[in-house]
Amino acid sequence: MEHTRGPELAEIADSASPLSERAQEMLERLRRIVPFDAAWLALADPMGSGYTSIASTDLDAGTLQYLNGPTVTHDIEVTQTDRARPPMSPSDLPYPVSELPTWAECFIPAGFHEALGVALFDRGERHVGFLVLLYCSTQPPPRAMRRRLHQLTPVLARGIDPLRSLVVAARVVRGATAGAVLCCDRAIRPLPGLGGDALLADGSVLVELACSRVDDGQPFTSFLWPRGGRHAPDGHVRVSVLAGGEGPSTGLLGTVVLSPATDLRGLTPRELEVLGLLINGCSNQQIAHALVVAPRTVATHLEHILAKLGAPTRTLAAVRAERDGFYVPATHGRRCVPQRHNKDGW
Question: What is the pTM of this model?
Fold first, then answer.
């Protein structure tokens, strides 16, 4: 019977249910395969410091609060259970487990004396999370139980990996050449399966713009970005921003993916800039001010844009350009500048 439950655990891990629900279901199913008295499953911080609870069984609020603190992270590092290795028990330590603050201050007072702790890693050896199974007995868990848990750790890691849904979402971008994971703190992380790009460096204008699109509640947006400077001497690249991360607890906002910009409908780098400002709601006068050109020049650009997009009005041109991603977004410093009005409102 235990062997038949392994595939059931894998089905839960691969399901599309929310991360917290998936994690809780995996713990409940795991209990039938590797019995325990209580358990704690946590995500590793994406920046490599600390853990955040996503599921637990039979642990009170005080214990969970303690487990989310820095002491647990320190003890995991000290005992080296944050490495890719088989599950460890307190009986494996060369000193009494009571010397660890987590046990002396939390687990032992809660009635637990033994455990199996294991770090969870994805196939690329990226630290995904941590699992601890707790026991009231003073007897170390049997070797067979350890082996069983060790065999299931890849499944558990896959099930709680917050990047999994982001990687799947990024695959919808055809011809993707580079990508990055957007974090809540505005930093970026590598996106498994795709390389990096100089445009996606930490703190870049493009990364900040991508984060702002997710902040604005846009699940998906696509636009163009110039290479080599605003006049695009090296052409343009298509940027796709996809929200995701399975909740704020993961510390992830979504992904930004680069792909070749093909068939720009004859739009020039300047016309793509004009479209970005047009989508931003700028008038001809405001566009002229932002681009430091004459209003008549803007009017000429708009005539060409309407013809190339087959749009009879500037409003329809803006709608089509935004829908199809044929524009370079107006960035800070090139947004609309409010016009001054006289007392009559002109």
Answer: 0.69
Beta strand ranges found along 24-138 (DSSP E): 38-44, 51-57, 114-121, 127-135
Residues 6+ apart with CB under 8 A from 24: 55
* Angle made by CA atoms 12, 17, 19, in degrees to the nearest 5: 90
Going by the DSSP 8-state scheme, the letter that residue 59 receives in this structure is -
Measured CA to CA, the distance from residue 11 to residue 7 in angstroms comes to 6
Q: Cα separations (Å) of 159 from 67, 90, 143, 319? A: 21, 26, 25, 40
Tokens 């505005």, residue located: 186
| Domains of the chain by start residue, with CATH | 2-160 (3.30.450.40), 162-262 (3.30.450), 263-346 (1.10.10.10)
pLDDT per position as a tens digit, 89-133: 999 999 999 999 999 999 999 999 999 999 999 876 788 899 999
- Give the bridge partners for 57, in sequence order: 39
